[in-house]
Amino acid sequence: MALTLLVVATACADDSDDRQFASDPRTPVEEPTQAATPVSDAASVAPETLASPEALVDRRGAPAAIYVYADGALRSVDGEAVRLLVEGDLAAYAASPGGDQVAVVTTRDSTGSEVMYSITIYDADGETARTYDDVLRVEAGAATPVAVATPSSHRSDAASPAIDLSWAAQGGRLLLTHGAGHLIDVPLDGEPHEIETRSSISGAFQGDWSPRGDVIGLLLRNDEGPSELALVAPGDEPASVTVIAPAGGPSGSSATVESFVWKANGSGVFFLEAELTQAGLRGGTIVQWDHSSNSTSIVATGGQAGPAGSVTWFAVSPDGRAIMYRVALPDGDGLTFNGLYLRSLDTGQVYRVPVSVIADVTEAWWVAEGLVWSQLATSQAEGTMVEIVFIDAGGVQTQIASYALEAAASPVASPGGAATPIGTPAESPVASSSATPA
What order do you get walking across the sheet with 227-233 strand by strand? Predict the structure, then answer.
């Protein structure tokens, strides 16, 4: 079992809680299993600008289709085809690793006292592939809403219990995470079942299977707001829960982990760590944790925007060789978008994606022929619009969809995530063969 490699502290804050804490993972090791990517001092060294994303990103394994939830409907965008898959309120959704299918979580009030969750899998044409009815029942009102510090594709609205759905990297199973403390394993060749844990996982808001299939990464938010990254070992009965970040465990500091992504080979994780202040999240930094050495190293900071720059979102390329991240600057009680960057995990080279100066990128992802991102753009003539933009390997951009925004900004499209209505279509999305993934 991989978790036996962790150095586990014997003392916890509460003896009645079986949750474990790894020793400070920033302890230096003589020969790290995976060398840290050098991070330049952004105040003195400007990032190297590359000719195009093609010079940085190997797109092998990127999905052909992406999925956009807007105006109460989930749509697939695949080359020139834009298809309406399902309409209505969705609790969460997650695309398969290849993008050929998407799983959708819906809810209904079953008895007046319980909420029932079901999962339906659709192909990219909107045909139903499989349905899992009644995978979880939760008492209505029993789940405490989880405070959401920043928008994330993996979270439901802050007014609801956090619900997350993820699709395992190998494609064979789904994982439903519920903020009331439930983990539901959904093998595609079997029946859903709940994973029992030794300690409470109330406050869970993101869960993902390791690519090796032996452990689950889980984010847990406490009542004060900060969250921890833990590993859940389903092979144990009940499953053990070991906290690995922030460094040092629950010491009362304001450090918080807001999102994570497994390394492509399952040897560790990348996570976004920040400080939770009265003004919100500050100092967002991407950190990588290596399982075998139980050590961490910094991968990227918001230094491209200056000393106050903060990473607020990130994604890892399908081949695991590059990372894409959003940088913002403090602006009163909030953060203002500064730029979207790609960084090579092999060389440390940085590419700044050429985003419009009036746009605010909310999320981005790799596709088969380039990059796609969603952005908010405001003009006096049209108001605030949600735009889906594609950039090919040569740096040519094409807008493939546009929606009028009626609500506050939130992530609008992702391979997997919570479904939050974001507006009314200004026109039907139209994609051209030269501007969209094949």
Answer: 20-21, 240-245, 227-233, 216-221, 204-209
